[in-house]
Specification:
The chain is of the alpha/beta class. Helix content is 40%, strand content 22%.
Length: 240
């Protein structure tokens, strides 16, 4: 499930790309398709890193890459082990809502980005997320610990305070919002709900097959109930 719109990004050969909080590597693998780039998938979850590594190896075996390099690394977003101004693109998708010290994390992902280059941040959108919190007291703990809900303005203002400027945004994954509402209604940790499991099968089918009809419905509904808010920023030149 790709949240970032890579068509908006001018990725050139030789770029260094960081996917921080990469999970199982969905965006890492997508970035790896670009010509002669180096992509780093970083996360604190060792199991997720192993899955990301196997997915990247699978891309290698199939030849589904741009001839570049990949690395997976354990890393803490509040203390990243990279030099200042190191990456040409930083992707931080569905991460900040989990981080208690999120302003420290924002400083870090901007610190390691080169001036003039792109930062992409996605978080759960306020309206669909607020419904999840209202339906279930367990949700924000069960879903790997969501510690806050951002408004669009709040998130843009806080990131721009650290030296980036917003230039684009969109919403994504409208078909996933009803799934989480249903899951929260029956209990977010419950695994025996027929309705939830049926909807999950539908989403899996949709991700794998990408039929035109569901792509159209998703795009149509994204402005209304898109589950994710996706923001694009450029790092401003450093002041002398």
């Amino acid at each position: 499930m790709i949240t970032v719109d890579f068509k908006k990004l001018d990725i050139k050969p030789g770029y260094r790309i960081l996917d921080i909080g990469c999970g199982s590597g969905r965006h890492t693998c997508e970035a790896y398709r670009f010509e002669k780039i180096t992509v780093v998938g970083a996360d604190l979850n060792f199991t997720d890193l192993c899955e990301a590594r196997e997915r990247l190896r699978y891309h290698d075996a199939l030849g589904e890459h741009g001839g570049g390099k990949w690395i997976v690394s354990a890393a803490d977003i509040t203390n990243l082990p990279f030099q200042d101004n190191f990456f040409d693109l930083v992707i931080c998708s569905e991460v900040l809502e989990h981080i208690p010290e999120d302003q420290v994390a924002m400083k870090e992902i901007i610190r390691i980005l080169k001036p003039g280059k792109t930062l992409v941040v996605s978080v759960p959108r306020y309206f669909p997320e607020r419904i999840c919190w209202a339906l279930s007291d367990e949700y924000y703990n069960a879903n790997q610990g969501h510690v806050r809900i951002y408004t669009k303005k709040q998130l843009i203002d806080r990131l721009e305070k650290e030296g980036v400027r917003n230039w684009a945004m969109h919403f994504a994954h409208s078909l996933h919002s009803p799934y989480w509402w249903l899951k929260c209604f029956v209990g977010p940790t419950r695994e025996d709900s027929f309705a939830v499991n049926l909807y999950k099968r539908f989403l899996t089918w949709d991700i794998m097959k990408k039929p035109l009809i569901t792509r159209f419905i998703d795009r149509l509904l994204n402005p209304i109930v898109g589950k994710s808010l996706v923001l694009y920023f450029t790092k401003q030149p450093e002041r002398g």
